[in-house]
């Protein structure tokens, strides 16, 4: 059975046959491979500048440069171009999101959270959109990266909760009116639920971005393989997967935008719970 499969590929596609003969089978997960560019070791600590580091740096630089050139004195135009309109749209969207999701605080206090939420939203948005570019790298498709980002935000929100409420911040573990016999179990459940927020924030972003990109990669590889086969039947059969790939590109673009939006909403909700103690 394996011999027939290899001969069939050899008759229609020599390159693919040789690729399989070498023992290396193309995988849809190759696009998520981490490649070290500048490995460094200091004592027992290992540092490496990798492709995720490069694309995160490029994304952050793009966001900062875009905001700088649009918001600097004389940088804005009376008739905004596409980039200026994009920044203004995001700049109007984030304050509205903060005002809607964070209640019980004065406008000045809410504005203190605006820079962090604005940078987080734009960074996630551009990281997700960057992954739609061929031969680029989807930073948010790696669990350790999204987990590190979510834990950093989670720790920061917890610190804000203690700063604003002191030890009274721990009162969220035991809502009022709970019977005393149930208190130990409820405290444990609330603590586990609170800690899982950091995991859920990172897992949701990672899972959605990786699943969508993997599906597009699988269908693209299948369509390309059939397209390379010198047979009219295969070429006609390739039109189906090709149209599916084109049809999935739009929803995947929507997922990239919506995941940045959903993650930002979650951050605002967690921040509201920490500052207002579920009130």
TrEMBL record:
Coiled-coil stretches noted in the UniProt entry, renumbered to this chain: none
Name of a matching Pfam family: ATP-synt_A
The keyword Mitochondrion appears for this protein: yes
Record membrane topology: Multi-pass membrane protein
Location, primary (coarse class): mitochondrion
NCBIfam families for the chain: ATP_synt_6_or_A, PRK05815.2-4
HAMAP family in the cross-refs: ATP_synth_a_bact
PANTHER family xref list: ATP SYNTHASE SUBUNIT A (PTHR11410:SF0)
Family recorded in the similarity comment: Belongs to the ATPase A chain family.
Protein name stated in the entry: ATP synthase subunit a
Biological source species: Pisum sativum (Garden pea)
The organism's taxonomic lineage, starting at the top: Eukaryota, Viridiplantae, Streptophyta, Embryophyta, Tracheophyta
